[in-house]
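Internal QA ticket QA-208
Title: Verify multi-chain structure generation after dependency bump
Assignee: T.L.

Test input:
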Amino acid sequence: MAHQEKETSGLEWRITLGDGSSKSLVPETGPVSRIWMWLKGLMAGLVLKVWKFLNKAWDIGVEDPRKVIHCLKAGMALTVVSLVYFTRPLYEGVGGNAMWAVMTVVVVFENTVGATISKSLNRVIGTTLAGFLAFGVHWVASLSGQKFEPLIIGASVFLLASAATFSRFIPSVKARFDYGALIFILTFSLVAVSGYRVDKLFALAHQRISTIIIGTCLCILVTMLICPIWAGQELHALTCRNMDKLAGSLEGCVEEYFDNNGELEDSDKHPDKKLLGYKCVLNSKTTEESMANFARLEPAHGRFNFKHPWQQYLKIGSSMRSCAYSIEALNSCIDSENQAPEFIKKRMSNVCLKVSSNSSCVIKELAKTIKTLKKSSSIDFLVEEMSSAVQDLQNEIKSLSSLLSPAELLLPESKETEKTTSTIHLLEVLPVVILASLLIDISSRIQDIVKTVEELANVAEFKAEADDKAKQNQANINRIVPSQQNDDQQTMKALERA
Amino acid sequence: MAHQEKETSGLEWRITLGDGSSKSLVPETGPVSRIWMWLKGLMAGLVLKVWKFLNKAWDIGVEDPRKVIHCLKAGMALTVVSLVYFTRPLYEGVGGNAMWAVMTVVVVFENTVGATISKSLNRVIGTTLAGFLAFGVHWVASLSGQKFEPLIIGASVFLLASAATFSRFIPSVKARFDYGALIFILTFSLVAVSGYRVDKLFALAHQRISTIIIGTCLCILVTMLICPIWAGQELHALTCRNMDKLAGSLEGCVEEYFDNNGELEDSDKHPDKKLLGYKCVLNSKTTEESMANFARLEPAHGRFNFKHPWQQYLKIGSSMRSCAYSIEALNSCIDSENQAPEFIKKRMSNVCLKVSSNSSCVIKELAKTIKTLKKSSSIDFLVEEMSSAVQDLQNEIKSLSSLLSPAELLLPESKETEKTTSTIHLLEVLPVVILASLLIDISSRIQDIVKTVEELANVAEFKAEADDKAKQNQANINRIVPSQQNDDQQTMKALERA
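Actual output:
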C-alpha cells in the first residue's frame, strides 16, 4: 500500500551525491505551516497532560470519596461566610474586618475535625495573646514620646518575631503550636505597626477577635456536623489497615518464595501490590504522629471517649514498623540470586508456610481486636499456635544438619568424585535457613505487637468478646478497675449483712 | 537526729484506735497556708517546666547556630517592613494594603532560600490568578443584575473553592503548589466578596499585588544575602551525613557483636548513639523530598549549578534506606537471645570485621565523593576489596560445614554421651551465619549505592580527583563532553598543521 502511494505521488526531486547514491528532496514546508504544526503538537501535548491530570484527580476521588465530600464542605463553609459578608459589604459597617472571617475559614478548615480544632485554637490563642502584648507595647511606646516610639516598636517586633520564629524549631512546639506561633507573629506586627490610638485599638481588637471566633465556630460546626472525618477514627482505621497489610505481605512473601511456578498465578493477579503492603507501614510514621496529636483534641465520637489513649497507637505503629523492617529483609530473600535447591525448599516449605500463616493469623486477630474494640478470646491460643509452629521450624532446621556434608572440606581433593547427591553444602542450605530465621525473628516481633495491643486493650478498657459469655464475665471480674472492685466489695458486704 | 527533734517538739495529740494501736494527730494547717503551699508547689512546677523548655531551646540553638541566625533574619525582615509602614501608617495613603506586605513577610519567610522562593512564587501566582478570575466573575455578575449577583458569586466561590481544595489532595500539586492553592482560594473569595465596583477593583488589585511583590522581594533578598541557607546545600550535606552515619552504624554493629566484653568501653563512651545512626537514614525520606523540591528553584550557588541533578539525591537516599533496613536486621542480631558459642564467634570475627570495615570504607569514600564533588580514583579498588572480603566470608561459611555434626540427629539417643566438643549443631552456628549473610546482603546493597552515586557523578559532571594528576588527565580525556572533545580535536589538528 505504502509503495503504491509513493508511485502515484507524481513528481519527485532527487539529488545524486558524490558516492553515487541518490537522495530524494522532500519539499520544504513554509514557516506558517511549521509554526502551525508546532502549535498543534504543543496543544496536543497540553491536552494530553491536562487529561492525565484530570484522570488522576478522578481516580483519587473514586478511591476516597470522603476527599470529595471534604472539598464540598470547604466550598460550602466559604460560600456561607462569603455571602453573609457580601450582603453587608466590606467597606461599610464592619470596618474591613469581615475579611478576617473569610480568611479564617480558608486557613482553618481542615480535613479532620481534630486538625480544624487544633488550627482554630492556635488561631484564637495566637491572635489574643499577640493582640494583648502588642497593645501593651503600643501603650509603653506612646508614653515614651515620638522620638523613641519607632525604636521601641521596632525592637519589640524584632525580639518577639525572632523568639517566636525560634520556638517553631522546638519539636514539641512545632508539633502543636506551629500555626499559633505564625499567627502570633502576624498579629503582633500588624497591631504594633497599625499606628492607631490605643482607645481605637480596643474596638478594633474586639471586632477582629469576634470575626475570627465566628469563622472558627463555623468551620468547627461544618467539619463536625456534615459527614465528619475524625482524626482519631482515621488513626484507628490506619492502624487496622496497616496490620492487615502487614499480615498480607508476610503471608504473600513466604508463599511467593516457595511458589513452584504458577501456583499463585490464578488466585493473585497482582501479587506485587499485596507483597509491598508492608511499605505503607514503613512510611506512615509522620501521618500517625500528626493524627494522634489531632485526636487528643477531639470530643468523644463514635466508640471513642474523649480520653481514648491515642498515644498507645504510636507504640503499636512503632512495633509494626519494627516487624515491617524484617519483612523487608524477607522480601529481599525472594529476589536474591542465591536460591536453595528445589528439594530443600520443598522439604522446608510446609513448616515455613505454617509459621507464616500462623503469624499472619495473629496479626489479623490483632487487627480484629482493634477494629471491634473487643478483647480477643482466641489471641492466646493463636500465639501459642504460632510459637509451636516456630518450634517445629527450629526442629526442622536442626534436622537439616543431617543432610550436611562435614568431611568434604577436610578432604576436598580425594573425595570430590565420590560425592553423593544426598549430602549438601551449608552454603546451599543457607538461603532457606536465613528465610526461616527471619520468620522466627518476625514471630518474636509480632509478640511485641501483641503486647502493645494488649496494653491498649487494658488502658482503653476494651470489653471481652461477646460470643463467649463465660469468658466475658471472668474478664470483668479480673479487670482491675478500682471503682468496680469497690462496688463488688460493697455488694459482697451487703450480701453478708443480709 | 530526727528522733531527737521529735522528742523536743513538745506536745503531741494521739488517738487510740479500736485495735489498740495509737495514731498521732498532725496539727491541721489553716486554709490560707494550704493554698499558699499549693501555689508554691504550682509555681515551682511551672518554673521547672519553663526552665526545662528554655534549656532545650538553648541546646537546639547551640547544636545548630544557623537556626538562631534564621530567627534573627526573620526578625530583621519583619522589622524593616514594619518600620517602613509605621512611618506611613496603615490608615493614610496606602489604603490599608500595607498589611499585605507585613503579612507576606510573616508567611513567606522560610528557613531555606528554595522554600522562600517557592512560597513567594506560590503567593504571587496564586494571588494574580485568583484576582483575574474573581475580576471576571465580578464583571459577569454585575452584568446579570442585582437579583442574580449573589447567586453567581456564591456559586463561583463554591465551585472554585471546592476544586482548589480538591487539587491539594493530588500529590504532585500538594508537593509544589499547596500554598498557592490556599492563597488562590483566599484571594478569590476576598475579591469576589469585596463588593467594590469593577473600576475600583483594578486600583485595589494593583496596590495589593505590588505590596505582595515588595514583601516577597524583601524576603528573597534577606534569605539570599545574609548567611543564606540553601536547600540544595542542605540536601547535599544531609546525604553526606547520612552516609557517614550508615558507615558508622555498620562498623559499630559488627564490632559490638564480636566485642568480647569491654574492648570498646574506653574508645566509645556512647556506642549506642553511633550504632543507631542508621535510624536517621530511615527517617529522612520526607526531608529529602521537600529539600529536592525546593532546591530545583534555587539559582546557582557555591559549587552547584542551577540545573544540578537534585532528583538523583532522592535515588541515592532510597538506596541508602534499603541498606539501612538491612542494618536494622543486623542490629537485631546483637540483641538476639540466641548467640553462637564464643569459639565460633572468634573464628568468624576477623573475616566479618574485614567485610564490615571494607564496606564502611566504600560508603565513606562515596560520602567523600559527594562531599568534594570529585570522582573518586579509589572507589573501584575499594569495591574490589569489599567483594574479595565477601568472597573470603563465603569461603569461611563453607568451611564451617566441616564442624557440623551430621549423624547426631539420625542417632540422637545412643550417641548423646559420646558427643565430642569439636562437632557442633547447625542451630549453634546459625546466629553468626545469619549475621554473615546479612553482611553479604548489605555489601550488595552498597553496590547499588555506588551505582546511584556514579550516576550522579556522571550527570553532574564531577571532575576527577586532583591529587592524582595522571589519572585526572586520563579521566578528562575519557569523559564524554562533546565540546571538550571538539576542543581536543581542534588542538590536534592545529598541531598537525604546524
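Spot checks passed. Chain A has a mean pLDDT of 78.
Status: verified.
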